[in-house]
């Protein structure tokens, strides 16, 4: 579905680490915007077109410097095709570089004033450093603190219906409605109980677009617009595009994404700091896990500085597992599962998104087309405008693209991501259970304090069988991963109440859907596996809390209906062991199976012949 990339490339929006972007296929420009007085002047003689790109940019720079003076120290050569536009300065055409890529490349590689020896990092004289008691908000406060969004991001006033929550996996995480998953409960400690442990699984924070996009893809649209910049003119709601450049990088965290993880670390310390007492008593420190990918490591570091404060060295140990082809890794399980590279099995979601976009974006396409004369605006382009809104907002703090759509169209966008991830990652994805089972095996090992029996999925014996790198007796675990893996894990756990609607249709949004990606797998999404002891319940209990919403465990065999979503740990473990036993990694990941027409799954398993 993505002709520019090899068919062996992994398909998802999020977990794709490679960097062979299409971004660089046009003559993109890495510089500051030019003041208006500079770019309205003709900057290209005909002879410039004949010079090579590099020579051309240099000549242009010199010429422009002469025209604009020292206040105009940057340049925008555009591309050859665009140049003739500048000879008609009175026509209101898109700027020759509209759609081109702008990069600022901070920090400079060899700054002239960098003298680390003059800036020692440890000068002593810290003053007194006594610490106090650990906070325990989930036990001590009368209510649970709600995380409502993103104070540093600006959205248009016309979208005050909560546009940030209508972006599927691109939404910043927020506390879902108390009853979102069907239970009237909340994460604070139920009466008669005390919390004894926490297994915390979270996603990285807001990032730039990934290098790969199955449908849409901001960089691809920027390339198309940039290549055709001399041909199109925008007006009306789209007039801003005449001066617009593409400013997004790839893959890495945005400043806001950094804040999300820092805040998450602080909020978890406030809620569960008391669990650290257990480490002091046993003379140990926690082990948190993340992966090698830049945004994964940066997310874990920001979480740690929020959770432990600066400096965090010595307070915990960070396991950085390798996310790369061939490495067993439960937090990046697709890297050893060949069938997840087969698009006929792993990218069925694209067709659903495409079909649905053709329904909900029809009006928008008709509305926007006359405002972009000279460019053939496809449904997919309009879809990218919506992606652009989300990405620009979480990267740059505001996006003009957000103003272009109605609330209903944002609901449509949100649903397009439900479709995509239902079929490509969650309960509707035939590899979900296998890809999620490694983490479930680890969870069971930790809950039972018993090493993993057989390494026959994505688990890594070297790490998992070593009690230092994979401790079993701790009261607090923190693991960082991708949204696709969170969705695999929710499916592998058999949280079937989240899949109650069954296969999602591509022609309308079903009422009361229980599978909403903006609630399950947004940026910095987080799952609390809370362990409790209660005088009202026999034996240790577990409950699962996704983005502060308590998930019913009644779909898991042996788990009773319980108003706070609790299940006895032994019942839970027995059911999960059952599912582990039913899972066949070799068949699922290596088997030669196909998907019959009309076949579907709601348990994340492949067809069995
Ligand atoms: C297990 O993880 C370690 C550390 O990341 C890595 O060196 C090793 O290659 C992995 N083993 C397998 C079989 O992938
Ligand atoms: C890696 O995973 C494969 C497939 O499950 C398994 O056969 C192998 O033993 C694992 N290797 C390690 C070191 O865990
Ligand atoms: C610490 O926590 C672990 C895991 O919950 C538990 O097994 C152990 O008894 C606790 N130790 C102390 C000293 O509280
Ligand atoms: C949606 O939920 C409401 C309230 O729970 C219920 O009354 C209604 O029948 C449900 N609709 C569908 C289509 O399931
Ligand atoms: C998994 O979920 C399905 C569907 O709700 C249910 O029939 C099955 O019993 C569950 N299995 C286990 C082991 O929990
Ligand atoms: C993997 O090992 C477990 C025992 O730890 C077993 O129940 C399960 O069936 C095995 N899966 C495969 C695919 O061999």
From TrEMBL:
This is Phosphoglycerate mutase-like protein. It comes from Roridomyces roridus. Residues 1-27 are annotated as: Disordered. Residues 1-22 have a biased composition (Basic and acidic residues). One of its GO terms (molecular function) is acid phosphatase activity. The chain crosses the membrane at residues 49-67. Gene3D superfamilies: Phosphoglycerate mutase-like (3.40.50.1240). It comes from the Eukaryota. The keyword Glycoprotein does not apply. CDD domains: HP_HAP_like. The keyword Hydrolase applies. It holds the Pfam family His_Phos_2. Keywords: Hydrolase, Membrane, Transmembrane, Transmembrane helix.
């Amino acid at each position: 579905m993505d002709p520019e990339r090899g068919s062996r490339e992994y398909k998802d929006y999020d977990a794709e680490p490679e960097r062979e972007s299409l971004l660089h296929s046009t003559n993109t420009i890495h510089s500051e915007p030019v003041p208006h007085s500079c770019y309205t002047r003709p900057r290209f003689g005909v002879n410039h077109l004949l010079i090579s790109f590099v020579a051309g940019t240099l000549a242009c720079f010199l010429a422009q410097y002469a025209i604009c003076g020292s206040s105009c120290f940057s340049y925008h050569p555009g591309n050859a095709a665009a140049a003739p536009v500048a000879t008609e300065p009175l026509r209101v055409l898109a700027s020759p570089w509209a759609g081109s890529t702008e990069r600022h490349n901070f920090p400079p590689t060899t700054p002239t004033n960098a003298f680390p020896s003059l800036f020692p990092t440890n000068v002593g004289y810290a003053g007194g450093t006594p610490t106090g008691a650990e906070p325990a908000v989930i036990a001590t406060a009368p209510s649970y603190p709600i995380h409502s969004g993103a104070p540093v991001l600006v959205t248009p006033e016309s979208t005050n219906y909560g546009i940030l929550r209508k972006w599927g996996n691109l939404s910043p995480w927020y506390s879902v409605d108390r009853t979102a998953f069907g239970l009237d409960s909340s994460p604070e400690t139920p009466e008669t109980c005390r919390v004894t442990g926490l297994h915390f699984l979270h996603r990285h924070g807001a990032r730039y677009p990934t290098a790969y996009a199955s449908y849409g893809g901001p960089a691809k649209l920027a390339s198309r617009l940039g290549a055709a910049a001399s041909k199109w003119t925008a007006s009306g709601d789209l007039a801003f595009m005449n001066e617009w450049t593409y400013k997004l990088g790839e893959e890495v965290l945005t400043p806001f994404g950094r804040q999300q993880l820092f805040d998450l670390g602080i909020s978890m310390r406030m809620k569960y700091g008391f669990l650290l007492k257990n480490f002091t008593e046993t003379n140990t420190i926690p082990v948190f896990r993340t992966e090698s990918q830049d945004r994964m490591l940066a997310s874990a570091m920001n979480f740690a500085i929020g959770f432990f404060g600066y400096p965090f060295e010595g307070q915990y140990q960070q396991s950085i597992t390798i996310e790369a082809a061939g490495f067993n890794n439960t937090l990046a399980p697709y890297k050893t599962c060949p069938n997840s590279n087969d698009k006929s099995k792993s990218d069925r979601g694209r067709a659903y998104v495409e079909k649905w976009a053709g329904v909900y974006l029809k009006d928008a396409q008709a509305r926007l087309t006359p405002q972009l004369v000279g460019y053939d605006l496809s449904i997919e382009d309009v879809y990218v405008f919506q992606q652009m809104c989300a990405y620009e907002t979480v990267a740059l703090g505001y996006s003009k693209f957000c103003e272009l759509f109605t609330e209903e169209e944002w609901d449509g966008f949100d649903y397009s991501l439900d479709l995509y991830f239902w079929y490509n990652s969650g309960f509707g994805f035939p590899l979900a259970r296998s890809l999620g089972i490694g983490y479930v095996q680890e969870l069971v090992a930790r809950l039972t304090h018993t090493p993993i029996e057989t390494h026959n999925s994505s688990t890594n014996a070297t790490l998992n069988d070593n009690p230092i790198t994979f401790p079993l007796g701790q009261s607090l675990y923190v693991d960082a991963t991708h949204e696709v893996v969170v969705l695999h894990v929710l499916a592998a756990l058999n949280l079937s109440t989240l899949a109650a609607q069954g296969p999602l249709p591509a022609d309308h949004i079903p009422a009361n859907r229980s599978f909403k990606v903006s609630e399950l797998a947004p940026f910095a999404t987080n799952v609390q596996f809370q362990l409790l002891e209660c005088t009202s319940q026999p034996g240790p209990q577990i409950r699962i809390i996704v983005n502060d919403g308590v998930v019913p465990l009644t779909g898991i065999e042996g788990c009773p209906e319980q108003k706070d979503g609790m299940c006895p740990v032994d019942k839970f473990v027995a059911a999960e062991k059952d599912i582990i036993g039913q899972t066949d990694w070799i068949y699922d990941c290596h088997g030669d199976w196909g998907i019959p027409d009309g076949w579907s799954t709601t348990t994340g398993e492949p067809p069995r012949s």
